[in-house]
């Protein structure tokens, strides 16, 4: 149960609600939205002057209501379209709010969605019954974004963080000629060995997953502690009240393991321009596989940035100077590819 200091009884009750289904998550987001935006973190201080932002809910072809948000420069046409794929313990309405503002202030049109079962989208919280079907939901949503008459002639880029890096790579493999490039921040091409249960336990859990896929039975380490270097920033993750924070569901864990194995075996099929960014001290996703992606991908236009002493959450969990350095590297690369 999450406890935040200084909350009224009413807010604590909202926080304590069962968020397996989307209704309580949406109530919690509305109740905490203004608290989140006042957090003392570099990302929440990104200016909104000159930006137009919009949120929407749309029912997709599978009948699920998907939440999405956009950030666009107020004047003129954006330089390009950036489509964001968020990580496993994340949503597109918390730290990414600041990331998107920074990118939009630099002239880009930024679009984000919560996957089914995550954030403000419908679906059982934190449950991925089939990774490929989820990738299909992402393709469906961003294909509609790119068909907008005001955007269809612009370059388009995938932007994937952590598990979102795996989503972005799978999107590219299914749409090899549809994107002008991808920015991958600590991509989940392989889960770090320390994060995976011992072999025998993995075998037992895999067997149980066939019978009880929705059960929250997979032992896990504190992701925030592993991913966030700055303690103050780590503590602020508690305010992402609609992020999934329980033990992983059996079916979800199995999907993540099989997806990373599949991607690891298909790195040579990655052919689009790539910017890969990874902290050398990342203990959540394996930095060595980012190196392998750089070496094995068939792209002739690729760049790998490895950051000394940096953890997993390069844009959220590091000291401000490192966050700004990573931003500068991303914006410089995007500018060169527009």
UniProtKB/TrEMBL annotation:
Gene Ontology MF annotations: lipase activity
SUPFAM superfamilies: alpha/beta-Hydrolases
GO cellular component, as recorded: membrane
Pfam families to which the protein is assigned, alphabetical: Hydrolase_4 (PF12146)
Domain Serine aminopeptidase S33: 77-319
Top-level taxon: Eukaryota
Protein name: Serine aminopeptidase S33 domain-containing protein
């Amino acid at each position: 149960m999450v406890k935040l200091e200084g909350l009224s009884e009413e807010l604590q009750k909202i926080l304590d609600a069962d968020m397996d289904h989307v209704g309580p998550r949406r109530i919690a987001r509305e109740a905490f939205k203004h608290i989140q935006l006042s957090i003392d973190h570099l990302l929440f201080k990104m200016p909104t002057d000159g930006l137009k932002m919009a949120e929407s809910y749309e029912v997709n072809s599978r009948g699920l209501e998907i939440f999405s948000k956009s950030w666009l420069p107020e004047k003129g046409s954006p330089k390009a379209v950036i489509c964001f794929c968020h990580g496993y313990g994340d949503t597109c309405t918390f730290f990414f709010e600041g990331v998107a503002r920074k990118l939009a202030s630099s002239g880009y049109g930024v679009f984000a969605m919560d996957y089914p079962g995550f954030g403000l989208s419908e679906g059982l919280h934190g449950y991925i019954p089939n990774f490929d079907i989820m990738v299909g939901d992402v393709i469906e949503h961003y294909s509609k974004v790119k068909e907008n008459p005001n955007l269809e002639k612009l370059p388009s880029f995938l932007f994937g963080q952590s598990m979102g890096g795996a989503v972005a790579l799978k999107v590219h493999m299914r749409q090899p000629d549809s994107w002008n490039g991808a920015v991958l921040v600590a991509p989940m091409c392989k889960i770090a060995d320390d994060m995976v249960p011992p072999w025998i336990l993995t075998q037992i859990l895999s067997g149980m997953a066939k019978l009880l896929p929705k059960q929250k039975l997979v032992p896990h380490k504190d992701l925030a502690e592993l991913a966030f270097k700055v303690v103050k920033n780590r503590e602020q993750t508690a305010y992402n009240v609609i992020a999934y924070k329980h033990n992983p569901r059996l079916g979800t864990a199995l999907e993540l393991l099989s997806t990373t194995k599949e991607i690891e075996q298909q790195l040579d099929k990655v052919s689009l321009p790539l910017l890969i960014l990874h902290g050398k001290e990342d203990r959540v996703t394996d930095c060595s596989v980012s190196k392998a992606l750089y070496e094995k991908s068939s792209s002739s236009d690729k760049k790998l940035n490895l950051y000394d002493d940096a953890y997993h959450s390069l844009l959220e969990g590091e000291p401000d100077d490192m966050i700004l350095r990573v931003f500068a590297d991303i914006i410089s690369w995007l500018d060169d590819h527009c």
